[in-house]
Amino acid sequence: MESLNPFLIQYMAEKMKAAVLTAPGRLELLDVSMPRAAADQVLVRTTAVGICGTDFHIYGGHVNYNRDAEGNPIPLGARPQILGHEITGVIEEVGRDVKDLKRGDRVILDQGLTCLSQRIQPVCEFCASGDSHQCLNFKEHGITGVPGGFAQYIAISGMNAIRIDGDLPPTAAALAEPLGCILHAVDATERATARYTFAGERPIRNILIFGAGPAGLLFLQYFRNVRHFDGPIFVADLNPAKLKLAAAFGGIPLHSANSELAKELVERTHGEKIHLIVEASGAGAAFRLLPTLLRKQGTLVLYGHGHEGVDMSLLNYLQFIEPTLICPNSASGGFDSDGRPITYRIAMKHLVSGCIKVEPIVTDRCNLDTLPRVFEQEFRRPSFIKAVVLTKS
Fold first, then answer.
1. CA pair distance 5, 85, nearest whole angstrom
2. Number of CB atoms found within 10 A of residue 123's CB
3. Could you tell me if 35 and 11 are in contact, meaning their C-beta atoms sit under 8 angstroms apart?
4. In this structure, what DSSP letter does residue 182 have?
5. DSSP three-state, residue 239
6. Is 177 in contact with 107 (CB distance < 8 Å)?
7. 6-175+358-390 is a CATH 3.20.20.190 domain
8. Nearest to 327 by CA among 235, 208, 192, 209
9. Distance from C-alpha of 136 to C-alpha of 201, rounded to nearest angstrom
10. Which CATH code, of 3.40.630.30, 3.40.50.300, 3.30.390.30, 3.40.50.720, is assigned to 180-326?
11. What would the pLDDT profile of 258-308 be if each residue is shown by its tens digit?
């Protein structure tokens, strides 16, 4: 499998198990060469890896973020991929230049490779400004062709490994990455010049979250338990099981297929409509409802990806009410004093404290052998919300 991609050329002869995406819709469990830690890297034995909506999009052939120098997608037939970017594990080997980590350390991994983690100097303007997720030299394990976590081992820059402080089970630790994405999204919302804000002359009085999947439920808990927002947070979804969980987390559940949804929200908000909408469903149908739900000059966070089956002319109605559009991406952000991403440390703190609960969101657990089944059929179950791969060496 040395032809898998250029990042495998330093791999050892020893083999490991990995789930390899060899074609759209075809995930194969293969023996691949095991990585070795370069001087600035650590070799991590994966213990838990979350399955993200991005993984499903890549698996289905809807997107391919592995691009050549001209920006063209590299077909899976030419370069299969190891997906998985929500990763936690245990360090097995430490490169000679990594001085502050040791074998046996439990870590969560930031999958994004920036100027700092790639030893590029001077750093680009985005890394310098704390917007490292837009690094000009950005690569991502499990997304842009660099091998990800759906394998027994992964070699990654020591700067991307954050030691776990506290008693955090592997299943919960794997969700530090998606929680970090929510932290970054809210931070981006607060930094925007918007009419309605969390603290200002015109306070946000209500929130609507489209989608009660993992992201929507994390947004809900973050607003309630970390930011202590005490106004109504409406959560719209089609799935009764997800809406039940949203209610348990302090949301007001709404069935989004209801043709009376707009009328109900106008009544519940006394005609104000919604000050802040978080679109976390990735459902194209949501765009048809947004102009009727969002208050004029309100804020719309476009967090979900996908949105198939809608005409771009729908944006006309959004543009007419002059919304503030926020399009956040990734969990990476500024760097801590040791050069590691501070967003992950903050996410880990919220998980360890218990103010963000992720165990109820994880409905499915699998291993590398049964992982293909999750992609093929399990995610279609009405009770499915989030799956985590538990690996063993």
1. 17
2. 18
3. yes
4. H
5. coil
6. no
7. no
8. 192
9. 37
10. 3.40.50.720
11. 678 888 999 999 999 999 999 998 887 788 888 899 999 999 999 987 767
